[in-house]
Design goal:
Layout lengths: L2 H21 L6 E4 L11 E6 L2 E3 L2 E2 L1 E9 L11 E5 L15 H8 L6 E5 L5 E12 L8 E6 L5 E6 L5 E8 L5 E7 L8 E8 L1 H4 L3 E9 L8 E6 L12 H26 L1
Helix pairs in contact: 1-4
Length: about 270
């Protein structure tokens, strides 16, 4: 292969990697819970089925850091992220319209899918949440992050973070139109009637990382107030090795091309 063709090939490869990373769509899965008939009571996550495999080992949120959360005023529809639960569901602490970091972590950090973070339609938030274990990409073909959204009518932005809260990889926007039907409804304090719950599955590859300690969740008024829950699949082995950054791929490709040219010159000199 000529040098010019080799460089072109490398460029196309890098472009393809970037395109896949930024255009990946959320995958579907089946949510298995303790009960689906009473939308006001506890609905506990038991397992997830995806690609004919059962997932029942989860990592839960155990820490939250609020970077931004629109403050609530006297208007009941003001503010942004608050804690919410089913009308008759149990909860780790009392629901709060202006929750602190501990309260958000507690509502997200359990298996009750009727404990959620509720967001007002016009509010904005940016919150880091950390899981109780490091989440690593593996060769199972399964997603690593699972989201549920009450109402199936909102979007949510997600980006990976490391153990110190630095953002890594690339941000993706989970779109309401890509939600799958989770197969149950919830009726929480913030609403008057039960609403359908949608779900998104996300892989670490979509986020452009091979491991993460947590995720940064964010939304603004255009997202229409996501009311959500998130858990992670506990990593169990057969891990995927880290992939070089695009710049590294280019560097390696250039090095390979240079080595190829030198090899051709060496062969020509020997032949002459």
């Amino acid at each position: 292969m000529k040098f010019s063709k080799l460089v072109t090939s490398i460029g196309l490869t890098v472009s393809t990697v970037l395109f896949v990373s930024n255009s990946a769509q959320a995958a579907s899965f089946t949510t298995n819970v303790t009960q689906k008939t009473d939308a006001k009571k506890d609905i506990l996550l038991e397992s997830i089925e995806q690609n004919e495999k059962t997932i029942n080992q989860f990592s839960f949120v155990n820490k939250a850091v609020i970077n931004k959360n629109t403050q609530r005023t006297n208007n009941k529809n003001s503010g942004a992220a608050s804690t919410d639960k089913g009308d008759e569901a149990s909860a780790p602490v009392i629901t709060a319209e202006d929750p602190d970091e501990v309260e958000i972590a507690k509502f997200l950090g359990n298996s009750n899918l009727n404990n959620i973070v509720d967001t007002e339609d016009n509010g904005s938030f940016n919150i880091n949440v950390f899981f109780d274990s490091v989440i690593k990409a593996d060769n199972s073909g399964l997603d690593s992050l699972f989201f549920w959204e009450r109402g199936r009518n909102s979007d949510l932005s997600v980006q990976a973070i490391d153990s110190t809260g630095n953002i890594i990889g690339n941000a993706i926007k989970l779109l309401r139109k890509e939600q799958q039907d989770a197969g149950f409804q919830i009726d929480t304090k913030e609403i008057d009637n039960s609403q359908k719950v949608g779900s998104w599955g996300v892989s670490l590859a979509q986020l452009g990382v091979t491991n993460l300690s947590g995720i940064q969740l964010s939304a603004d008024g255009t997202f229409k107030g996501p009311d959500f829950k998130v858990v992670a699949r506990k990593s169990q082995g057969n891990f995927v090795k880290a992939v070089p950054e695009p710049g590294t791929i280019i560097g390696l490709g250039s090095f390979a091309a240079l080595a190829f040219v030198r090899r051709r010159k060496s062969v020509s000199n020997i032949a002459s």
